[in-house]
Amino acid sequence: MASDQLKSLLSALDASPDNIQLRKLVTQQAVKEKEWLAVEGQAKVLLQLDPNDTESKALLAEAYFHNGAYSAAIIVLEELIASQDQNINYLKLYCQTLLKDGSAGQARDVYQQILAIDPSFKEDALDREFKVSSAPSTETIEQDFAERTLGMQRPSTNFSHVGGMENVKKEIDLKIIKPFLHPELYKAYGKKAGGGILLYGPPGCGKTHIAKATAGQVNANFLTIGINDILDAWLGNSERNLHQIFEIARKNAPCVLFIDEVDALGANRSEMKGSAGRNVINQFLTELDGVDVDNEGVLILAATNSPWHMDPAFKRPGRFDRMIFVSPPDIKARKSIFEIMLAEKPTKDIDVDKLAKKTPEFSGADIQSMIDISIEGKLELAFETGVPQPIETNDLLKACKKMVASTKEWFTKARNYAIYANDSGLYDDVLKYLKINK
Ligand SMILES: Nc1ncnc2c1ncn2[C@@H]1O[C@H](COP(=O)(O)OP(=O)(O)OP(=O)(O)O)[C@@H](O)[C@H]1O
Ligand SMILES: [Mg+2]
């Protein structure tokens, strides 16, 4: 029940509804008395009068929380955090709300963020929830985050495990590996190392595979991030996390940072999430070539299936100024992919030339499935007869008949962009692949 004091303040407010100071006083009194419905109502009016009033916004979030309107509270808190991402009070309430809303995983991330900002942070209920006895250091959190959540690794594959893709290997070597191995030479010519390569093309044709092999080639760590994951998992906090990921890559240099689905950052993407879009893009560009950043030893590769959704700002010099088409493997490349993939399998008299010939438009992933299907067949047989038999050309050809090349679909879309939106010859390689004359 509201106290007499609150009641009399409320009736005074009825008499002069435009008195903002009075309304603030009413709101404060309502908070004191834990009259959260009243707080919610008053905060809403105050925000109508001044949408930038963060104090009222924070009270509205708190009221929503106490009134059980968790998703509404989350929306307001994400807005607040987007503008003040170090505010422990906001983060704490955000964490509590996420917990109530059943998003324990996300709550834990926020909790770790709080600890990263203030290692001495203590809140019994939250500590109990996350079973934290003593606060881990920021470094431990980051390392853990890198290794577990982001799956940082040291790949054992290198360029010799990549079939074909000669032009891609050459570009990566020139633009990424050489500047990394011989920085002094580049400096001597006054050429700034930096920027990255954007790989694009149909699915399954080796973009991720070659990025990983690049790390193996120079004995570097490999850190991969999917932009969609960042946008999903940390709605409203994407900028901060993007920064953290780049920091982790810098700390673990030499490191290949592979950014997958980079088109998700595209400004002209209609399904762009939330209003964070522009901020996230700007943050990303700052991490790439901002004045204060030092990306020495961080080799940046990105990949997309939809390069036409990329924001043009990414393509400027010093950023992703090289865009490379990763085409489906040609006959020679398919031959070497078969050789690489079958190298450690039990085989007999494999005719790779024939296999390569019979698999036009197959992607590396298609070839992988073809081999998997044959192996499954052989296993089944081995269980029946008790004698394992090696894989033969015919097994693979049989598997091939069950499959459709998966790269076709991509080209129906790419074709249109290549013909009608081929600004400065961006998609010349796609046209060449499709044998379309300009
Ligand atoms: N040139 C290649 N040499 C050897 N293996 C390859 C090659 N291309 C693809 N592969 C194999 O095919 C599979 C799919 O490749 P990968 O994941 O790199 O494709 P992708 O281009 O990243 O696809 P997506 O666009 O779907 O992410 C992997 O198992 C990879 O090892
Ligand atoms: Mg990939």
Model description:
The protein has 438 residues and is an alpha/beta fold. Among the domains are: 159-325, Rossmann fold; 331-401, Helicase, Ruva Protein, domain 3 (Orthogonal Bundle), CATH 1.10.8. The protein is built from 21 helices and 5 strands. It has a 5-stranded parallel β-sheet with strand order 2-3-4-1-5, sandwiched between helices. Strand 3, helix 15 (277-289) and strand 4 form a beta-alpha-beta unit. It is elongated. The protein starts with a helix and ends in a 5-residue tail after the last helix. Mean pLDDT is 87; it is low at 268-276. It binds adenosine-5'-triphosphate and magnesium ion. Adenosine-5'-triphosphate (ATP) binds at residues 162-165, 203-209, 303, 305, 329, 337, 340, 364-365, 368.
Give a short synopsis of this structure:
The protein is an alpha/beta fold and 438 residues long. The protein has helices at 4-15, 20-32, 36-49, 54-66, 70-83, 88-100, 104-117, 124-129, 138-149, 166-181, 183-188, 207-217, 227-233, 238-251, 277-289, 331-342, 352-357, 364-385, 393-401, 408-420, 428-433, and strands spanning 196-200, 221-226, 255-260, 298-304, 322-325.
**Cα radius of gyration in angstroms:** 28 Å
Question: Describe the biggest sheet?
Answer: 5 strands, parallel
Could you name the CATH homologous superfamily of the domain at 159-325? P-loop containing nucleotide triphosphate hydrolases
Total number of beta strands? 5
CATH architectural designation of the domain at 159-325: 3-Layer(aba) Sandwich
How do the SSEs run, as a string of H and E?
A: HHHHHHHHHHHEHEHHEHEEHHHHHH
Name the overall outline. elongated
Span between termini:
78 Å
